[in-house]
Amino acid sequence: MNKLTLCLAAIALTAAAAFAQTAAPLKLAAKYEIPASVKGRFDHLGIDTAGNRLFVVAEEGGQVLVFDLGSGKIIQTIKTPHPHAVLVRNDLSRIYITDEDKGAVNIYDAKSYELQKAVPLKVDTDSIGYDPATHNLYVVNGGDNAHETFTMLSVVDTTAGAKLADIKIDGDTLEAMALETMGNRLFLNNPAKNEVEVIDRKTNKVTATWPVKMGKGNATMALDESTHRLFVGCRSGQLVVFDTQAGKELQALPIGRGADDLMFDPASKRIYATSGGAGVVNVFKETDPDHYQSLGQVPSGPGGKTGLLVPQLSRLFVPVPGTGTAPSAVYVFQLQ
Fold this sequence. Notes:
Elements: H1 3-22, E1 26-33, E2 45-48, E3 53-58, E4 63-68, E5 74-79, E6 83-89, E7 94-99, E8 104-109, E9 115-120, E10 128-131, E11 136-142, E12 150-157, E13 162-170, E14 177-179, E15 185-190, E16 195-200, E17 205-211, E18 218-224, E19 229-234, E20 238-243, E21 248-254, E22 259-265, E23 270-275, E24 280-288, E25 291-299, E26 308-310, E27 315-320, E28 329-335
Antiparallel strand pairs: 1-28, 2-3, 3-4, 4-5, 6-7, 7-8, 8-9, 10-11, 11-12, 12-13, 14-15, 15-16, 16-17, 18-19, 19-20, 20-21, 22-23, 23-24, 24-25, 26-27, 27-28
């Protein structure tokens, strides 16, 4: 092999290595069409992998859109005055949807989509966190829309369809939460106080309060329990990393403004942040508990603030509201 051939081979290897390092972590695989009649913003999503269904909350459209994952088509709409979050329990064939206007968790039959029951809470029933071991659902409700200076985190028994307890939190706005599986703690975003509340799920008591100083508007959250790292997404454009053993901030990573969902994949050690203000998805890889590599910023669309990561399908779903030139759609990204 002559020097020229060796030189060309070296250049090719260098280029291939550079491409591998800079290749986008997400590839747009499809767009699920949403009718023009569905207006406004979208909120959180739910998944039923066994039933091959994706649930997309059309927050301002007053409905939850049910997509068939095979065809990408809408197969059902569930009318709800002001929905925010959805949970599916296949073992009971039930769908749980929070309703801000009604102030309730609505329970539907997962086959007929008929309303079976409503668990009454306060107005502005919003974010949820689910404990699969106890089947308890933790639901944010009340606060500013209820003209109160405090907010409730209510505990709902999804099997019985009944409220078990209320945990009163000082502050008129609460957002996303994360639950330990190997412990009893629940971490809850309290943007009204710009802090994280730490709650013992056995006693239903706040046991600690962690100030968020590296960002503003802490709205979304994910947890890597194996490394004791809590990730807090702030709408001001930071992903703040907490040590859950020490209860303190470690560092802040730059993300797009307006983040409303943060997802962590334990298998790949990747973190995905969907930001509606910037219309992007930021992706990071946790190389070790104290180091995070940016894998890139992938465009979605303005207002694409929420997302759902489904590692078993190798997909990330991001609903994006329509603009003057583009209709609303669910962007389906393939994990790379």
